[in-house]
Amino acid sequence: MKFTAQQIAGILEGDVVGNPDVEVSKLSKIEEGIEGSLTFLSNPKYKQYIYSTNASITIVNKTFIPENGIKTTLIKVDDAYMAFSKILEYYNSVKFIKVGIEQPSFISDSSIYGENIYVGAFSYVGNNVVIGDNVRIFPNTYIGDNVTIGNNTMIFSGAKIYADTVIGNNCVLNSGVIIGADGFGFAPNDDGSYSKIPQIGNVIIEDYVDIGATTTIDRATLGSTVIRQGVKLDNQIHIAHNVEIGKNTVIAAQTGIAGSAKIGENCQIGGQVGIAGHITIGNNVKIQAQSGIGKNIKDDEIIQGSPAFALSDYNKSYVHFKNLPKIVKNIDDLEKKIHGNS
């Protein structure tokens, strides 16, 4: 798909300096720009490349004034970085626009779907499913019975959505996501074996939630596992049964959250964090990577370590962690000296 400089300027509310009819069909870094590509300049470190780039169009700040001759057509905007981000978002949305139901696929006669949906080949949609408008379900996706999917949600190839799951509007579920699998619930028997505890709840995902590839969210034992509005989950995260994650919280890859943990709003959780079950983490909490959380955390805390404690205390302690061999040697030398003089 091709766009002219004039069309792009219209999207960005910018001004064209150069040929308004020049066309682009791809994006590039400014130092790697080729004919037919669109790039941007916002960081002064890369200013030199605007005089040599072969990109057909370059987005720049309105304050930019060339000091030498340039070949590229300019689109001047208030903030080049934000404008290019807007173009990336627009490009991404256009790239994934698909409509229609490909064959072979299966959609139960009892299911209801809205306008302009896309269902890719080899997908399965179960009984009593409700799918909103402009939903895109890519090939090899499984949608179980009684699932509800809101408007403008996108589900990529290979996702598995178990029965009774509720997914809101404007969500993105990436490839390999599994929503609604059984929670890890087993009761020990007298002979040392375990009996499975039925998991009969569901998963509720509110609006504007992004879920990374191969992330898993378990259904509740009773009630619901809940992912609130605006939550962003990275790849390869595990969320256990009956967990609740507050709105606009972001979680990095390989984090594991045990059953019935409650996480507040606007939290930032680093990669490889382990969170124990049945604890509460407050709002606006920041947890550094590889931390282990085994107790309740109050609002606004910044913590690190395993078990985790206040970041400022951790950093002070780390100075001593690194010097432990030297400290031990000094103590040994001091003891030898004391005993030698006694």
Query: Largest beta sheet: what is the strand line-up?
Result: 8-11-14-17-20-25-28-31-34-37-39-40
Question: Which spans of ≥5 residues are poorly predicted at pLDDT below 50?
Answer: none
Number of strands: 40
Helix content: 10-25%
Task: Please work out how many helical segments DSSP would assign.
Answer: 4
Mean pLDDT across every amino acid position:
94
Keywords for this structure?
single chain; 342 residues; alpha/beta; twelve-stranded mixed beta sheet; ten-stranded parallel beta sheet; 4 helices
Set out the fold topology:
Blueprint: E1 3-4, H1 5-12, E2 15-17, E3 23-24, E4 26-27, E5 37-41, E6 57-61, E7 73-77, H2 80-95, E8 100-101, E9 106-107, E10 112-113, E11 118-119, E12 124-125, E13 130-131, E14 136-137, E15 142-143, E16 148-149, E17 154-155, E18 160-161, E19 166-167, E20 172-173, E21 178-181, E22 186-188, E23 194-196, E24 202-205, E25 210-211, E26 216-218, E27 224-227, E28 232-233, E29 238-239, E30 244-245, E31 250-251, E32 256-257, E33 262-263, E34 268-269, E35 274-275, E36 280-281, E37 286-287, E38 292-293, E39 302-305, E40 308-310, H3 311-322, H4 324-341
